[in-house]
Each structure stands twice: as structure tokens, then as C-alpha cells.
């Protein structure tokens, strides 16, 4: 067992029951030996300089790396070894870095250093993401431009140049952070996404994929900005996300074919403006549905929601959701003409039985989930 006593402000006494030990010598403590009637054989450890640990020590190491080009040499000395290539997923330099960026950079650096220690040649190329709505919004604010027409009047070329200036607004802070945390990265030869050579490399990559038959034409549901008339990424939507109360409505879809003919599917939707683009209805195949009579109409609703929707009512029949799959119904609007299968009930396990009626209207042009369900079930697409 080891005992450590602080006998004075500048030394420690350490005694080990089985003999002399030097556990702190490797940490920089100066060692001297003495005997004590109280402690027996002892070691006196002089306190090291306060600069040995902490930020000062880190700065010294970083300075040594920089002055001696240790990073560059560590890469070049492994040239010709098995390649481990790294192109950084680039940050946007028009915003200040934060602790989340430190964490991700730490993980990147760990993997790259490990690969180098295993003998790989590991060139590490930095990058700057210079595209995206955040840059444009900040420039619009600085220039006092509110609408797309204002940007066009200002001039697209002039606006693009202002965006290019803005995107490197905090480059110095990003470089300082990267160097301070010891993340070895080639910042001097970084790729920049607005440069023509980068854009052309993306075109080239797409061409290779196209030649190999790996690209197909299809649809993808994305958020859309009506003001700027441009699609948005989910990240961009989150930048200005506000919760709003929207109306919900109940809509009746009458079944026109099969064993459930003339029964009515009671649909609950929070997006009534998408009803003209309806192509299908989804039910939960494993849920229980009830047929009830209300005001002379026979309506279908999931059992869990009967009381919430109708109050006290007795079911005429009970069905599994799977029994309703395939039923054909009359659409709410019949002026939309398009090819393809439509107006059919499909099964979807994620239909909630805790909200609405457990019966969903599907408009693939207005929801990513709707689109995937309709695509898998071979339903048409129109908007």
C-alpha cells in the first residue's frame, strides 16, 4: 500500500510497505532519499514546475509541432504506404465554431492518427462548405434585401460575390480552433465548394455514376420556400422553425367496390389542402376497426378512437385492418386525371391508433412518408 503525505509546500513523502518505489518520478518530480524513524525508508519528491502540465505545456507542444513541421513530415514520411484518404466533411465558416465542432474534430483526429500509427499514408484535406441558405440569409440581412425580387434587382452576380466574401467571415476562428485542439489537418490546400474545380469534380463524379447505371430519375419530397422559390434541406428548415396551430378535418371516403361497398372510411387529416392530390388511404393492418352507424351512414374508425370521435356508440361489425386493404373508394375530387393505380386502401404499420381515426389520407407529393408508402404499393404520383 502506498501513502502520500504533503509535508511541506514543495515536496511529498512517499513510503511503500514492501520497499522503495518511484511512482512519481516519471511525472517530473525530483527524487531524493532519506530515512525517518516515523516512516522508515522514504522518498522526497520535489514539486515540478507549474508549467509542466496544462495549457502552457500544450502551447509549447503545438509550437514545437508547427516550427518543426511535424504534421507535414508525419504525412510525407509515409508516402508510398497503403493509402488512407481523408476529405473533411466541410464546416461553413460564416458561423463561429462551438463545443460540438470540437467533439467531432476530436473523433476525426483520433481515427486519422490511428491509421497513421498503423503505417498508412494519411493525407488529410480540409474543406470549406460555401453553399447553403444560412450564408444567403445573412447577406440578405446585411444588405436589407427581403424578397427574391430584391435580390434580382440588386443583381445575382453582385449578390453571389457578397456571399463569397461572407462565407469566410470566421475563417480565422476556425483555423485557430483547429490548431489549438491539435487536429492535424491540411488547411493550406483546402477544397472550397464554390470553386469551379470542385463543382466540376462533382459533375465528373455524377457522370461516372450515370455511365455505370447507378443514377435514376425519380421524385423526392423536400421542404420548399415559396418566398425564394427554392427547395430547402431539413437543416435549413430548422433554422427558422416555428410551431403553428393548423386546422384538422374529418373527411368521408365511400368504398365503391368489394365486400365493404358503401361503407365509409372516416379519415382525419391535419393537411386538408393536400386532399386534391390524394391517391390512397392507409390503415394499420394489425389494428381493430369498427363499423358504426351515424345519421344513417355506416362509418369505419379504429376501435381505440371510437369514443373520442363518436361518444357512446355500439359497433355493428369489427374488422382487422388487413381486411380493408385493397378496397377501392371514390376520391374527394374527381377533376384530377392521371395514369397509374390510385384510390385504393393500403396497409401501413406506422398508422397511429392513438390519434384521429386510425385511417390516413395519402398524398405522395406532399409528404416524404406518404411518398414512400405509395411508391412501395405501386400507387400513382401527381400534384
Give a structural overview:
The protein has 383 residues and is an alpha/beta fold. 31% of the residues lie in helices and 22% in strands. It is built from twelve helices and 17 strands. The termini are far apart. Keywords: Aminoacyl-tRNA synthetase, ATP-binding, Cytoplasm, Ligase, Metal-binding, Nucleotide-binding, Protein biosynthesis, Zinc. Its EC number is 6.1.1.5. It is found in: Cytoplasm. Residues 61-244 form the Aminoacyl-tRNA synthetase class Ia domain.
Shape: elongated
CATH level-3 fold name of the largest domain: Rossmann fold
CATH architecture of the largest domain: 3-Layer(aba) Sandwich
End-to-end gap: 78 Å
User: What is the succession of H and E elements?
Assistant: EEEEHHEHEHHHHEHEEHEEEEEHEHEEH
Amount of helix: 25-40%
Rg over CA atoms, rounded to whole Å, is 34 Å
* Mean of all residue-level pLDDT scores: 85
Number of strands: 17
What is the number of helices?
12
For the record, what is the CATH homologous superfamily label of the largest domain?
Answer: HUPs
Q: Just give the CATH class of the largest domain.
A: Alpha Beta
Main pleated sheet: 5 strands, mixed
Number of discrete domains: 3
Briefly note the structural class of the backbone: alpha/beta
Amino acid at each position: 500500500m502506498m501513502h502520500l503525505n504533503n509535508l511541506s509546500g514543495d515536496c511529498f513523502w512517499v513510503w511503500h510497505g514492501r520497499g522503495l518505489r518511484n511512482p512519481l518520478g516519471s511525472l517530473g518530480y525530483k527524487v531524493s532519499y532519506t530515512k525517518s524513524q516515523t516512516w522508515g525508508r522514504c522518498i522526497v519528491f520535489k514539486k515540478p514546475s507549474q508549467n509542466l502540465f496544462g495549457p502552457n505545456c500544450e502551447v509549447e507542444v503545438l509550437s514545437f509541432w508547427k516550427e518543426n513541421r511535424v504534421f507535414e513530415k508525419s504525412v510525407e514520411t509515409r508516402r508510398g504506404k497503403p493509402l488512407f484518404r481523408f476529405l473533411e466533411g466541410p464546416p461553413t465558416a460564416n458561423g463561429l465554431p462551438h463545443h460540438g465542432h470540437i467533439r467531432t474534430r476530436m473523433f476525426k483526429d483520433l481515427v486519422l492518427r490511428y491509421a497513421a500509427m498503423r503505417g498508412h499514408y494519411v493525407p488529410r484535406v480540409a474543406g470549406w462548405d460555401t453553399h447553403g441558405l444560412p450564408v444567403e440569409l445573412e447577406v440578405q440581412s446585411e444588405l436589407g434585401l427581403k424578397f427574391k425580387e430584391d435580390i434580382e434587382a440588386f443583381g445575382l452576380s453582385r449578390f453571389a460575390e457578397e456571399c463569397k466574401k461572407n462565407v469566410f467571415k470566421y475563417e480565422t476562428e476556425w483555423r485557430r480552433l483547429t490548431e489549438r485542439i491539435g487536429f492535424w489537418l491540411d488547411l493550406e490546400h483546402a477544397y472550397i465548394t464554390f470553386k469551379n474545380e470542385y463543382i466540376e469534380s462533382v459533375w465528373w463524379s455524377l457522370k461516372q455514376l450515370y455511365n455505370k447505371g447507378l443514377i435514376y430519375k425519380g421524385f423526392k419530397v423536400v421542404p420548399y420556400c415559396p418566398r425564394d422559390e427554392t427547395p430547402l434541406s431539413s437543416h435549413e428548415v430548422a433554422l427558422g422553425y416555428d410551431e403553428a396551430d393548423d386546422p384538422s378535418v374529418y373527411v368521408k371516403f365511400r368504398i365503391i367496390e368489394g365486400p365493404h361497398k358503401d361503407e365509409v372510411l372516416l379519415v382525419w387529416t391535419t393537411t386538408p389542402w393536400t386532399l386534391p392530390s390524394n391517391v390512397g388511404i392507409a390503415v394499420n393492418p394489425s389494428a381493430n376497426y369498427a363499423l358504426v352507424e351515424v345519421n344513417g351512414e355506416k362509418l369505419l374508425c379504429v376501435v381505440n378512437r371510437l369514443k373520442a370521435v363518436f361518444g357512446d356508440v355500439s359497433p355493428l361489425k369489427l374488422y382487422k385492418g388487413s381486411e380493408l386493404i385493397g378496397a377501392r373508394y371514390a376520391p374527394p375530387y374527381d377533376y384530377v386525371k392521371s395514369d397509374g393505380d390510385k384510390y385504393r386502401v393500403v396497409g401501413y404499420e406506422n398508422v397511429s391508433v392513438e390519434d384521429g381515426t386510425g385511417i390516413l389520407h395519402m398524398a405522395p407529393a406532399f409528404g416524404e412518408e406518404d411518398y414512400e408508402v405509395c411508391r412501395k404499393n405501386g400507387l400513382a404520383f401527381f400534384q
